[in-house]
Amino acid sequence: MIDRPISRRTLLKSGAATAAGAAAVAALPTMAAAQSPAVPQVDGGYTPPAPDTTATLTISNWGDPNDQAVYSGVAERFKAKYPNVTVNDNFVPITTWTDYINKILADVAAGSAPDVINIAIEGVRQGISRDLFRPLTGWVGSDPEGAALVADVDQRLLDGLSQDGTLYLLPNTWNTMLIYYNTKMFADAGIERPSDDWTWDDFLAIAQQLTTGDGDSKVFGFVLPYFNFGLTPWYYSNGTSQLNADWTASNLTDPKMAESVAWIRDLVTTHGVAPHPQGADPYQLFPAGKAAMTGAGHWVVGSFQGAGFTDWDILPWPQRTTKATVYGVSGFAVHPGSQHPELAWEYCKLLGGLETQMGFVAIGGATPALRAAAQSPEFLGQAPNSELFYQAIEYALPVAAPTVFSTLDPAMGRALDSVLAGSDPAEALATADQEVSQAFADVAG
Amino acid sequence: MTVSATRMPMPGRWTERRREAIAGYLFILPTYIGFIAFVLGPLLGALVISFTRYDLTAQPTFNGLDNYARLLTDTRLHQSYVNTLVYVAAAVVLMNVMGLALAVMLDRKLPMWLRTILRSAYFFPSLVGLAYVAIIWQALFQPDVGIVNYYLTQLGGPRVPWTTSREWVVPAVVIVDVWKNVGFGMLIFLAALQDVPKEVTEAAEVDGAGSWTIFRRVTVPLISPAIFFNVTLTVIGAFQIFESIVVLTGGGPGDASRSVAMYIYEQGFQSFRVGYASAIAMTLFAIIMVVTLIQFRVRRSWVFHE
To answer: Is the whole model's pTM more than 0.90, yes or no?
Structure first.
């Protein structure tokens, strides 16, 4: 469905969803706040390694060719700072996050542990449970440079990379889901831009109005971003989630989950405002004018620009009970077994630093985590209402990324497929629930 | 060492007979080594692993009968078994009936070139990689613009959602699987039919038997070893069905077309539950073994050996 290989977009495609039951959605921000890694007082006691240090650093990395170009810029800048350090930037193709983690564990067992690990939120809980990340709190507390980076990132993004108040990864970039709409099609149909607090019903009415034609000239009101991260806003904005509040149990049997899944199905079947997701790539249909709306994060901006498509604008996700959407964030960690942890930390700071973030802005990828980059004219100038991307963190909830993410993600995919093929939503979700609950039991046992 | 010395009959170990026996064993040794290394060894290994919890990274830990207890409550597994049994029944009936029908049609007085062309055409699907033709099948089955639905609707039939509905996805897989494998069965039937002595059928004809009676009473008994061979092979093959589903539907929608072999692969190598995957593999192994033993047992009652 995607026109270029692995990118930050993978983070989204593989992203599952998130947060909590109805009550939990309300409770979560509080909980997150309670667990937040309070940025410690900086004591300035940190001394960076000497510039003439000789060593080899291995990075476990992932990304598409555009990302790789940004990362090789990091390696060059590091080389200028530490000329005697050799950097092995190993790019690993990601199939699943469990698979990625297992590859790292195999390297660790073989005595070639990486020094720095690039990973997304989906793999964070799992990585922490396998002791893959060294806590960063000490450095953040003693290194003014590190503290300054962390201070420029929204607390909720840091929460996504922390557990029990301990920060394990320095943020890289992040994504959220917004509604993209075709401004020309809206104007032609005389539809005003809806308010930022629009509802599911408002959304459906517009989608119905913009679904026209037949056969080759068929235009749909909406095209589903049919992957877990892209479907998750329909759960959150209905005040539910796949998991309980602290991500320790399945919440798939919540009737509100079935209600959201039925809504997604009805967009395709009952209302017919969206094409069947099989073979319907939202990021081709939308810029081609075959669909008036879709959902995406900032990651499509680069490809829309590349295709010369400019008739679009963005809106927050419509709400049923709650104004909410999803976010996912990736970051860089230092492996606890690194022989050169301080060098690895120095490398992480470059990876998460402003220059690298601006590199990602230049390729039109995900949203930078540093406010300095997200508020730069370069970023804000790329699209209308670009400030909405970073503002979404105010009401976004993290993608549900428990230790059993690699079970949850495909189980949800099967449930959705099955419902679109005619299964009852509650039954399909009950099957997924059994599977996810078993996986939680396995982890506990 | 001289020639005569080696020719000298040695008492005891180096008799001609011994040497022949040793040579014989040496010839079959590679097969046995292969069997032990790649069949028996892994089989015993899987049996041991099926009593453990093993995620490929940490050491396996013994967990008794937990994996086997889990088999009973795993609804996804049950669905996969139901699907697999449907595949087995459909494949065994369709592949053998159609394979035999095709073979009978070819086993008649046809111009040599025509027979060669038809035989090649029927056998061809067995030769091509399914991964390539699956793309074509997906296009054929496409609900809106696929050729299959085009002709169906032209003939007044419904527009069938072949691979996106729970009802039709299993038939779709069966069609592709039968198309893929029927040629192989046909070839074996054809070879058997061509071995049926003409005198026997002619004698029956002289005795006044009709063609259907000759086929049923003379030909079928004579080719029954080939039928037995094909049935046994299709049963075992159908129980292990994997590729046809992976490339066509990926097991979906949901689990509607998933087979047990696919589920084993998923549990073992995607979810990294190697212990549980091994336990499922043991059940599949046991079922295939029992079914095959039954087939060999009932063979005496219907397979005719000259």
So the answer is: no
